Amino acid sequence: MPLGDNLGDKSDSRYCGVETEFNDDMPHVLSYNINGGFDFVVAPLMEPGYRPSLINNASRESSVLPFAGSDLVLSPAQWSSHVVGKISSWIDLDSEDDVFREDSEIALKQELAWASHLSLQACLLPTPKGNSCANYARCVNQILQNLNNMQLWLRIPLVKSDDDDDSVNGTSDGMVVELTDSWELWNSFRELCEHHSQLSVALDVLSSLPSVNSLGRWFGEPVKAAIVHTDSFLTNTRGYPCLSKRHQKLLSGFFYYSIQIVVSGKAVHKLPAGSSPSGSGQTDINAQQAQRHEIRSYLDYIGYLYQKMEPLPEQERFELGYRDFLQSPLQPLMDNLEAQTYETFEKDSVKYIQYQRAVSKALVDRIPDENASTTTVVLMVVGAGRGPLVRASLQAAEETGRKLKVYAVEKNPNAVVTLHSLVKLEGWENIVTIISCDMRCWEAPEKADILVSELLGSFGDNELSPECLDGAQRFLKPDGISIPSSYTSFIQPVTTSKLYNDVKLHKDLLHFETAYVVKLHRLAKLSPSQDVFTFSHPNYSASKSNQRYKKLRFEIPIETGSFIVHGFAGYFDSVLYKDVHLGIEPTTATPNMFSWFPIFFPLRSPVYVKAGSPLDFHIWRCFGNTKVWYEWCVTSPTASPIHNSNGRSYWVGL
User: Fold this and answer.
1) Staple partner for 384: which of 167, 408, 529, 637, CB 3.0–4.6 Å?
2) What is the top-level taxon of the source organism (predicted)?
């Protein structure tokens, strides 16, 4: 049964599995573990003593493979929903023993063929036995080319030593692997398998953990499961299993990123008789189940950690459906927005509260209290949409006791219809003048004291706010105020296997040279963001140009280890007026605002960065007669192609 009900969480992390030994009575294995509280089993499919070479040629064709029961012993739904196949752990496709290597390849293919026949959702592949795994990867890659929808989970121990000495680490299946950084093993394997989307990771969580920075890399990788060993648990004062604070925090991360927990191993805690698990702070409502399943106390503790998590905030629940969903940025000058898009933006009350605060401060600075009743401020809303900025400005005027005359300039004729209805409904006819025109073509009858706009994109300038406001500043008085007064874009390198594979699905250059708006979720942020381009308004510089170029160097802490960069996440921060700001840059983001998701600049080929090496990134903002576009590339540690040269794939039309 699920670990619990966490408000807003419908992810796979609600379900917990258990790793079992080989047993040819699969109905018993399943009923024992499901009745014991687990949701699925990770079970061997083949008798562990089986070796293809031990069967002589004469009997090979007539022999029955020693699988764990016929496909008929469970229903198709049970196989599919409750069983993850565990491939034999003895398999070593890179063994120097030719017979053993051939046996391994035959057995691997037989077991995966059987799993596919059973329509299992996933199979757990054994950990590569050494640092060289080329033949193993070759065989898996061949299988992936013709696999149904089944996922292959490669078992990787979660280890990274803090020095250059090789450390010896074990996995729960008894295999010993010499590793300094297990991420390197995973990266080598997935590179050989061409970053295949059906190849993912099952992390073996051991009693000691790598550094926080090193752990962070894994959240951008396709980790589907975390195998937690019973000997990784500590003992609380009541004698029940519990985890260290670091392990607890790690499991919270797994829950948040929809990574399923699998409990592995025998019970190593001798539970006190007749008492309930104090580690969970809850009474076991089914004591008989706890007695029946020897490791139920470990499941109870994991369930306790899951239920202890804070429920998702309202904003995140609203954004759940958008997580890691690639969207093309808006083309606000070329296209007219639809009513549904306007409605979504208008629901963002936090944004308009900030605008109202900015207008209020500007009005107070513009008109002293003694002149408030005699002086009328001319305010122009350029890109008025359906009127939320008009409303915010008028509320600011009422709040500060200032008189206002508003021009609402909007090029979308459909939005203008709504604007007229709003003005009539609110009785603003004597205050608000609606201009149905592109701001770049309009000739204003008078100069404005304040110019208000919401033309910002996810990267600040990516929806042509600089070009629009440079053109509109002719409406301003020489000492006029622009809201926003400035905005800066930011960028940071990320690991995001999910987004990389989504882009790769298109199998073309165009999609790898497009910047996407996306609610980033499954990613590792490898370094703090750095500022890129800044634009200020009004801009009266004689040599003003909106063309930009920036080179950035990212230094990643050496304890992070090596990593892979799939692309760059972009954000913005805007100064609306003085100390009133608006933005999505992670360290200064405006809370509970959902009008903007980050922007993502993908790389055509992921870039491998060795531990301690700097990462050099270049980005250009270019413009022509009819469009504005970005070009970007990496030059260190290796050079990538310059993406989107001449705006050949992605551009914003003027």
Assistant:
1) 408
2) Eukaryota
Residues 33 and 18 sit within 8 Å (Cβ to Cβ): yes
Containing 57, the helix (H) or strand (E) segment is helix 57-60
Total length of the chain: 654
pLDDT of 222 > 90? The answer is yes
Residue with tokens 């960065």: 609
Q: Give the sign of the dihedral formed by CA 274, CA 280, CA 284, CA 288.
A: negative
- Tens digits of residue pLDDT in 609-622: 999 999 999 999 99
Tokens 């196989």 correspond to 79
Write the pLDDT tens digit of every residue in 87-124: 999 999 999 999 999 999 999 999 999 999 999 999 99
HSE at residue 196, side-chain half, CA atoms within 13 A, is 25
Please list, in sequence order, all residues whose beta carbon lies within 8 angstroms of the beta carbon of residue 349, skipping any fewer than 6 positions away.
none
Task: Give, rounded to a whole angstrom, the gap between the first and last alpha carbons of the chain.
Answer: 55
What is d(CA 86, CA 289) in angstroms, rounded to the nearest whole number? 25
Decide if 513 contacts 462 (C-beta within 8 A). no
Q: Reduced to 3 states, what is the DSSP secondary structure of residue 264?
A: strand
User: Residue 556 — φ and ψ, nearest 5°?
Assistant: -100, 135
CA angle, 291 then 11 then 606, to 5°? 120
Any idea what DSSP says for residue 521? -
Question: What is the tens place of the pLDDT at every residue in 274-325?
Answer: 555 544 444 444 445 445 689 999 999 999 999 999 998 888 888 899 999 9
Residues 191 and 613: their CA atoms lie apart, in Å, by 20
Amino acid at 654: L
- Cα gap 299→277, rounded to integer Å: 11
* Active site residues per annotation: 454, 463
